[in-house]
Each structure stands twice: as structure tokens, then as C-alpha cells.
Specification:
Blueprint lengths: L1 H19 L8 H7 L1 H12 L9 H13 L6 H13 L4 H11 L5 H16 L10 H14 L5 H8 L1 H11 L11 H13 L6 H13 L4 H12 L4 H14 L3
Helix pairs in contact: 1-2, 1-3, 2-3, 4-5, 4-6, 4-11, 7-9, 8-10, 9-10, 11-12, 11-13
Length: 254
């Protein structure tokens, strides 16, 4: 009985500290605290890093947590809701949160950046001719893309060759967070993209490198980018969030 009380007390303290630092604790943390209290305590250090001063603004930290949870590679409703709630409490506006969502929503384009060049190569290997010379319309579209987005990645050449109409539709879609400058700082936009590209559930190396370079060019510090990556590392706790709930159901815990 005393052991149960001790694990319950530890779990209550940890849950309070998680939330104090703006992090949603794993569900059924008490179950973990009863079986492996040392590991339960270590989760707080990984997710909230209470041992070091944070360099990101509290609302920006929540934008990163929202990005990693709401990403199509995660779709974690509980974590996303907590991040939105905490961001609002930290002074974020609905417009800022919507812009985070707009930035994350472009992640699907990585299907094209991976597969379009492969398709072009495979067509060539199969003897299917692919026009190499760009039409005036394709040239103008590439120039407009660079002018409006400020970047051009090599895979975009394949997308432009295969279907300029689709690339134009994507350009219009991706411009959402940039019209009239948007509401988030340019470096914060890069932080959001670093978060979703570097996430364990995506690991998109080209995008991670490009957005780290972009963040540095926009004035981000080493410590800010390192903190973004540290926050995203805590995505591993999602295994506990799911697994402890299932274990609790199977053992009738609580």
C-alpha cells in the first residue's frame, strides 16, 4: 500500500511538472511510476528539459509541439490540442496557430520531391521520351516560383516537367503563410519546417538541411535550432502514451 502511495505521489508530481513546463504527460504515468519510477522521472527531463533555461519564447515552443503532433506523420490529437491550448495561454493568436497549420500542411509535397525524379528516371530507362526543353510557360512558372518563394529545389525540375499545372497549384497553396509577409517571424517559419522534417516519423534530410540553413540565414541562433530539435526528440514518448493506455486496459489498472 505504501508503495502504491509512493508511486501515486511521484506520478502526481511528475504530471504537475510536465504541465508546468507546457508538456502533456503520457497517459497512465502512474502505472509507469509504479513499475519503473526512475524511468518515469527521466521522461520529464527528456520532454521538458527543466534543467536548462529555454531560449525559445513559450508560444514558439508550443508552435513546435503543435507542428510535430499535428503533422500528417503523427496526427496526435491529444498532443495537438494541448499545444494549441498552451500556445493560446502563452499569448499566441488564432492567426499564428493557423499559420503553423498552413506551414505543416505542405508536408505532402515530399511525395513529389521523392517520387517525381524517380518517375522521370524510370521513364527514360523504359524508353519513354520526356521533353527536356522547357516551354516559355514552364520557364515563367519557375521564375515566378523562385520570386515568390525564394527557393528552388532540384526535385522541382521533375515536377515542372511532368505537370506544370500541378506545380502552379502547389505554389498557390504553399504561399498561404507568406502573403503580406505572414504573421510569424521568418525564422519561426523555418523552425516549424525543421520540426516536421527532422521528426523521427519523417526524417527528411534534404528538407532538414535546407530549413536549418534557412533559419540561420534569417537570424536564428545555434541554441534556438538545437532547442527545436530537442523538443521534437520527445516525440518518442508517444510510444508510452499509447502503450501504457493499452497495458492499463489489459490489467484493469486504475
Amino acid at each position: 500500500m505504501a508503495e502504491q502511495d509512493a508511486s501515486g505521489s511521484l506520478a502526481a508530481r511528475l504530471e504537475g511538472e510536465f504541465r508546468e513546463h507546457g508538456v502533456e504527460p503520457p497517459r497512465f504515468l502512474g502505472l509507469l511510476a509504479g513499475i519503473d519510477p526512475r524511468f518515469a522521472a527521466s521522461c520529464l527531463g527528456l520532454a521538458a528539459r527543466p534543467w536548462k533555461p529555454h531560449v525559445l519564447e513559450p508560444k514558439v515552443e508550443q508552435f513546435i509541439r503543435l507542428a510535430m503532433n499535428v503533422s500528417v506523420t503523427q496526427l496526435d490529437e491529444r498532443g495537438s490540442r494541448a499545444a494549441i491550448r498552451n500556445a493560446l495561454q502563452a499569448g499566441a493568436t488564432p492567426g499564428e496557430i493557423v499559420e503553423v497549420l498552413e506551414l505543416v500542411a505542405v508536408l505532402g509535397i515530399h511525395t513529389q520531391s521523392l517520387a517525381a525524379p524517380i518517375l522521370i528516371e524510370s521513364l527514360g530507362a523504359a524508353g519513354v521520351s520526356v521533353a527536356e526543353d522547357l516551354t516559355p510557360r514552364q520557364v515563367a512558372l519557375r521564375e515566378r516560383y523562385i520570386s515568390q518563394r525564394g527557393v528552388w529545389s532540384p526535385p522541382w525540375d521533375a515536377m515542372l516537367t511532368l505537370d506544370p499545372d500541378f506545380l502552379e497549384a502547389y505554389l498557390e497553396f504553399s504561399l498561404g503563410p507568406f502573403r503580406d509577409g505572414g504573421v510569424l517571424e521568418p525564422k519561426v517559419k523555418e523552425f516549424v519546417w525543421i520540426a516536421v522534417d527532422a521528426s523521427t516519423s519523417h526524417l527528411h534530410a534534404i528538407g532538414t538541411r535546407g530549413h536549418i540553413e534557412g533559419a540561420l540565414a534569417k537570424g536564428a541562433s545555434r541554441d534556438e535550432i538545437a532547442e527545436v530539435l530537442q523538443i521534437v526528440t520527445s516525440i518518442g514518448l508517444h510510444s508510452l502514451d499509447l502503450g501504457l493506455r493499452l497495458l492499463a486496459e489489459e490489467t484493469a489498472y486504475g
